[in-house]
Amino acid sequence: MELTAHTQSLIDLALMEDMSGGDITTRATITDDHRSRAAVTAKENLVLAGIPVFHAVFERLGEGVLITDKCSDGDVVSKGTVIIEVKGPTATLLMGERTALNFLMRLSGIATLTRQCVDAVAGTNAAVVDTRKTTPGWRYLEKYAVRMGGGRNHRFSLSDGVLIKDNHITASGGIAEALGRAQKHAPHTSRIEVEVSNVEQISEALDAGADILLLDNMTPHEITDAVGLIDGRAMVEASGGITLDNIRAYAEAGVDFISLGALTHGAQSVDINMKIMTA
Q1: CATH number for 132
Q2: For 135, 150, 158, 177, which has the most beta carbons within 10 A of its beta carbon?
Q3: How does 111-124 read in b/e, with b if 16+ C-beta sit within 10 Å?
Q4: Are residues 261 and 123 part of one domain?
Q5: Cα–Cα distance list, 238 to 53, 126, 212 (Å)
Q6: Does 126 share its domain with 260?
C-alpha cells in the first residue's frame, strides 16, 4: 500500500485531533527515558487491513519506535492472535496508541465485512464491489480495505467512469437522451453504465446502447427476470437493498457485479487492543 500525501495529511489531522495540546496524562506519569514493549492483539476473528497506516502514525511521532509485523494485510486473523509488536519510548507508544488503533480497527472492519460478502457469493460469477459511499477523506483507505477483504473497487471519483443515474436521466429528459449525449462525449475506451429500475427502462437502455445496466433496488426474483431479458447484451450490476443475509440470492440471479455501499458506510470497527508489556 502506497501512502499518499492525502493519507499522510489525514494521519496528521487525526493526531492533531487527539493531542493538539499534548498528552497531559503521559507527561505527568512517564519519564522521557522510559521504554516499553507492546503487543497489538485481535480481540475477535477478523480480516486485517491498515498495517501501513499503523506504521505511519508512529513514524509521524518521531524516531525510535520499532514495529514488527506478525501478520499481513488481507490475512484472516483469529481472536487472540498478536498482529504487531511495538518497542520504543513509552511516551510515544502511549501517544500514538489510540490513533493507530482507530485506523487499524476501522479498516479491518471494512475488510472483514467485505470478506464475509465475498465468501457468501463463492461459486457464482458475481464480483462484490464497493461504491462512493465512503467516509469523507477516507476513500482511498476504505477502498484499499475492500480490496484486502477480496472485493473490487467501483469508481474512485466522478472522473473514473460514466454512470448515468436517475437524476441524470431526469435532468436530461430520458435514458436515450442521456445515453446519446454520453456516447458523444465519453472517451471511446469508456464503458457507459445506466441505472434502471424497471423493465421499460431496461429495454430503453439496451436499445440506446448501454454497456452496463445497474439494476437498482430490485428483488432477486425481479433481477432473475431482468437478466433473462438482457440476455448477455450488457453487463449487469445489482445494487440497493443488498445485505450479507440476501447477497447470495442476488448472486444466484446471474449478475456480474453486486455493489454495496454498506461495505464502507455500514461496516463496524473490529476490536483490536494494544497492551504495554515490558521494557
Answers
A1: 3.20.20.70
A2: 150
A3: bbbbbbbbebbeeb
A4: yes
A5: 32, 10, 11
A6: yes
Q: Any idea what DSSP says for residue 50?
A: -
Q: Position of cell 437522451?
A: 177
Q: 95 with 149, same domain?
A: no
Structurally, the chain folds into a number of domains equal to: 2
Q: What is the pLDDT along the chain (279 residues), one digit of tens a residue?
A: 888 899 999 999 999 999 888 899 999 999 999 999 999 999 999 999 999 999 999 999 988 999 999 999 999 999 999 999 999 999 999 999 999 999 999 999 999 999 999 999 999 999 999 999 999 999 999 999 999 999 999 999 999 999 999 999 999 999 999 999 999 988 888 899 999 999 999 999 999 999 999 999 999 999 999 999 999 999 999 999 999 999 999 999 999 999 999 999 999 999 999 999 876
**Reduced to 3 states, what is the DSSP secondary structure of residue 43?**
coil
Q: Which domain holds residue 176?
A: 119-265
Q: Are residues 49 and 179 in the same domain?
A: no
Residues labelled catalytic: 98, 133, 165, 195, 216
